[in-house]
Structure formats: C-alpha cells, structure tokens
C-alpha cells in the first residue's frame, strides 16, 4: 500500500552540478544546481532550472552560455558552499580556492578541479512557475584523463559524482553497478 504525500520535488536522485557563468565586468561565477538533467540526445542538450533572483539567471540570459562542472565527492564542501553563497555578494572561486577556466568554446567559465565539464550554448528558455528552465546544447565535454576508461569515455566510478536528495536535503555518493543498461532486462524481452 502506498500513502499519498502530495506534489513534491522528490524525484530521486537529483544531480549536483556547478553552473559556471560570467557576470558584470567578466567576473566568473558559479552556483550549485540540482534541478537539471539530460533533455535531448541529438543534438546533445541539458536543462537546468533556476529562479530569477539568482545571479546566474541573468548571466545566462546576457551571455547565452553556461558550463556544467560536475564535482567529485571529494569536493562536496565546495559544491555545497557555492550553492549557499550568493554570486552578487561573494567571489566563490576566491573563497573556495577553486580555479576558474575560460572556455574556448562558450562564453562561460568552468571549474578546473572538477573532473567532468559540459560546455553549453543556450538554445531555449521555458518559464515554469518560480523557475525558468534553461536548455543548453552541449558544445563539448571535457574530462580529466584519469576519469576516462579504456574506451576513452568518463567512468562513473572514476568521476565519483554525488547526488542530492530533496526529501531529506542530503548529499549521497553513488553505489555499485547493478548491471549493464539495455542488457539486464533482455531476459523479459521474449515473454
């Protein structure tokens, strides 16, 4: 039996992504966003949802670009801080000791210390209640060499991302692999 608990943001899990933008006077800024995900395969696109008061909101609209820096679990403290502090009042790179890197492809910075980067060009916005959904086409993915597997693609285990749970406001590491996607369910295909 299930109990109704009403409409909530309890989709599990949510990513912990650090969104990079440039503000006034080309000041690099970052903020943590959990409302996001892949939204298209071809062209490859991601979506993030932000509230209007955020500095990142205006920055994306002005520059038509943003980056997603995916932190490893060893940077949970820094990722949490850049989600707490306001970009209009703090130099989050200076406070955390993280290093901004100017993207050569989009008008936004990314975080050098984080192992996986998505460089995005804004393609569409969608107004949804108190949030605006920003859809960005992934122009390039950059990865630290030590997180790439033998096929040359990022390994979840090596990137070591962590996730957010809205129901208890906690961060969690990702556990063991259960099986290979598009394979373990094949035993039910001919039933």
UniProtKB/TrEMBL annotation:
Residues 12-164 form the Flavin reductase like domain. Its cofactor is FMN. Keywords: Flavoprotein. It comes from the Bacteria. Coiled coil: none annotated. One of its GO terms (molecular function) is oxidoreductase activity, acting on the CH-NH group of donors, NAD or NADP as acceptor. Belongs to the flavoredoxin family. This is Flavoredoxin.
